[in-house]
Amino acid sequence: EVVLTQSPATLSLSPGERVTLSCRASQNVYSNYLAWYRQKPGQAPRLLIFGASYRAPDTPDRFSGSGSGTHFTLTINRLEPEDFAVYYCHQYGGPPPEATFGQGTRVEI
Amino acid sequence: EVQLLQSGGGLLQPGGSLRLSCVASGFIFSDWAMSWVRQSPGKGLEWVATISNTGDSTYFADSVKGRFTISRDNSKNTLYMELSNLRAEDTAMYFCAKDITPTGWRTQFDYWGQGTQVTVAS
Fold it and tell me: pLDDT value at position B106?
């Protein structure tokens, strides 16, 4: 099983700041099949990034993903109020039972 | 506009059974695999089950294998999950999610339902 470890667990920031979240895999993620989701309180997750660096439709361009192999990052430029949420990484490089999520990073004001 | 509208859920005793439903609109339902993902209180996300677009292939997390079944009715654009022999550790918010492949392999989830709460307690 590919274990995803996100860091830090919590970040305290202010609107307008830039932040980089980390997601490390216990082994190489096949073809960089890694996604990032944002989950606001009381809502379902929303897909932001797939394939490590491709923005999903309607994802604002302040979000960018990068990385390969075992280390991936999500950068948010100029935090907006709606960006204070929990972010999850998700690797999907194999059959469905092998897909795993990270434990999440909370970005708080 | 893609929508996934969930129903079902509730409070059940250990050993009980339940069916969750997820009605899809805004896309060709029969083209895509569908999945269920759950989130325990205050915890992260856990993939639970996936069904291919035709329903011919299904996949389950080890934690629910043999107790949960996943099915779909493409004529009704509806995804189902039957939960049986429920345990306290199945208490969670359950989300249906649309895959971006027909098989369910190597897919992220591009749309999610609003979630439905399942609570197992005596």
Answer: 87
